Amino acid sequence: MFGFLAPQRRIPKWRQAYARICQFQRQLYGLTSLPFMSYEAAFLYRLAIDFKLLPELPQAAAQCCRLRRLRNAEGAPDFQAASFAATFGVVLAGIKLQDDVQDSGRWFNRLLLAKFQRPIRDAHRFIARWTPGLEVEIASSLKLHSEMESSISGRKVTVSLAEYSEPTAYGFGAVFEAFAELLRPADREMTARFRDIGECVGRAIISWDCAVDFEHDRIRGQFNLLKSEADVLSAFEFALLQLSQIGWQIPDDSTDTDVLIQVADRIRCRRKQPVSSQPLRRLERWGLIREKRFAYAKCDGCEGLCLVGECCECTGGAGEAASCCAASETGSGLCALGEGTPCCCDAMCFCPDCVGCTPNGQKKPVSESAATTSGTADVYSKFEAQHGVAASSLNPSGFVTIDGERVPGRSQTGEFIQAGARVTVTSTNPFGVFVRKQTESG
Fold first, then answer.
1. Which long-range contacts does 284-293 make (Cβ < 8 Å, 24+ apart)?
2. Could you give phi then psi for residue 331, rounded to 5 degrees?
3. 362, 382: one domain
4. Which residues face 106 on adjacent strands?
């Protein structure tokens, strides 16, 4: 289970969608493909439900696939959509595995890639058969990204994070557009909206990866576009803006809105941590790999608990709570199961009481945290009716500075607002502030 769009807390409808994709992925690509189940695949499938392109799953639908085979899968009303989403997840897994091999070339990276060559190859064939032309667009986006990275490494060009993320945005946009076109071919407005959402997802993923990998890449001498801690903070802000742009386009009552809010919470929490703080990856916590130049402390059994919890999400709440682990400031993995332990906001955890962080990285009480959508809205509601400055051009969205804080902002009327213009906040929601340009009379 991997991906950027991972909620931190259990959302029943989201779990149903996740289980549905899990069932189809197991049916199409085998049991051994499930460790690479993608949260982005579940997000895409759930997006179709939120936009009424698919019927809502029954209330009694399973929240865990239980690794069972599907019966009469081809007769299911969501066969095309679920198959496409599962295939998308496998394609993403193949891209990730290939990147891992190119970045490190370690034996287990090569072994994993070799092991999953067959389902990855089958997934690409599926896409070529069902959506002609999409395979070419995916290959083109990967080529553009590789060429851009080579040019930057060779110091032939200098690009911004926004420019660097465009090839990935192009690829995700093509996939999301093809998915919408598969379900509703004649609705050009819907396919355009899905493409725009996909592009935002791609930009958010790239900016997040660059930011969280910054210190690790610097230590190992691997490529990273970011050059300073200030760049890291800007990358987190850029990721937040992309999530906001998605949130402003999808229905307010959608399940994916809750997912985006929780992911944004994780980004804000991670942004408050010192850049030098290096959370342990799962393989490091389990003791399967050890990076050079790092000192590892023993965890007194935490690795075993984390391993069970992270690999057994289907066991229910107990397994999910057990997966709530994090890295301490000293570099040792600790289970965030009690008061005073480090917060796990930077981990993909579903621990129900890990719902927020204080600036020093400690857990907040549930009452102080954004445990619900309405609670998370308080992040921006403090800016209601305040004045600020457009920190970037709003066309119609961008950044607004209010009381020295940069927040995602959107023009209330959709009009263009130039950078530096004085603005007034007219309303807020969980994704940012809506503003209007101030006139000379105020």
1. 284/333, 285/325, 285/333, 288/108, 289/106, 289/108, 291/216, 291/219, 291/220, 292/220, 293/219, 293/220
2. 95, 5
3. no
4. none
**Cβ(36)–Cβ(90) below 8 Å:** yes
Pairing assessment for the beta strands 397-402 and 387-390 based on DSSP bridges: antiparallel
Q: Is the Cβ–Cβ distance between 419 and 390 less than 8 Å?
A: yes
**CA 244, chain centre distance (Å):** 13
Q: Helices marked H in 314-354 — which ranges?
A: 317-322
Q: What is the pLDDT of residues 400-419, one digit of tens each?
A: 999 999 999 999 998 999 99
Section 27-43 average pLDDT: 90
Boundary residue ending a domain (316, 344, 370):
370
Domain of 221, in residue numbers: 12-256
pTM, to two decimals: 0.80
**pLDDT tens-place string over residues 87-137:** 999 999 999 888 888 877 677 778 888 888 899 999 999 998 888 899 999
Amino acid present at 198:
G
What would the two tokens of residue 191 be? Answer: 């396919």
pLDDT value of residue 66: 76
User: Is residue 271 left, alpha or beta, with left meaning phi > 0 and alpha meaning psi from -120 to 50?
Assistant: alpha
Cβ contact 164:225 at 8 Å: yes
**Residue 56, Cβ neighbours under 10 Å: how many?**
12
